Amino acid sequence: MVPPSALIAVGDDDTSAPGVRRALIVCGLAGDTEHRKLFAETVETLYAGLTTRLGFDAGEVTVLFSDEAAEKDGPAIKASRGLATRELLTEVAAGLEQTIKPNDTLWVFVLGHAHYDGRASWLNLPGADVNQLEFGKLFSAVRCREQAFFITTAASGFFLKPLSTPGRIIVAATEADLEVNETMFPHKLAKALAGPPPMAQFDVDGDGLPTLLDAYLWAARETAQEYAGSELLATEHAVLDDDGDGRGTEVQADYLPEELGGRLRPGRGNPQPRAGDGARARGIKLPMPPDAPAVEAPEVPAVEAPATD
Prior knowledge:
CATH architecture: 3-Layer(aba) Sandwich
CATH class: Alpha Beta
Number of domains: 1
Distance between the termini: 38 Å
Shape: globular
Number of strands: 10
């Protein structure tokens, strides 16, 4: 396992103890059998990446899954604290608020199905759903050195503003508009964190360091390529907010070619590092050498047409 001290902010001069690294994986309603299998595999991939690559002790990774564990499930689902209900999510968030110290780390992943009713974006859970304002309140009092929230459902861009706070990195799979179809981004993100490609491919921003920004950019690029390769109109555009203003930015647009919806033209080098959104994510170094053995990650099935939640 990678020691927690290996994951520090690039250029961070703080020599104090790195604190405890904690993660929460919430998978809401998965849907039919095929999607249940897909989301379970992605949860397992994230869990494996966190505990074998990224310095999170298995005892500090909490999983909430929408279904009871089955015999064929892996260690992450079998270790689920319980069904991903509104009540248990609230209890877990309150517990994190009480236990997290200023020098700790917290990464939160949200997967599953969601819907937008014209006024709010709702994470679909067993029982009562949770909207973006309610979810943001659950974590409003959490304060620690490193915070990263990955909201990867449909209509997830609406979660940015309620979650935004100085020092927090927030990634959403969609913009804050009517991007309400099923998303591919969470499965690409899981691969980026658990089984990344060689450094030459993973280092999207070309700074020579594998960082959390690279994981975001690589996942966004792979998602865009999936749509382009299937000759489909992209119905999701990931955004990142880490400057605390509550507005997400398609940082990947500067690094994607025009055929993938970006602004990068042939013959031009990588853009200069951004001073706004993306700067904090670039400061989180990931211990992913190019020759590191990859964690097995599920293949995302080819999508014939995006499904509507």
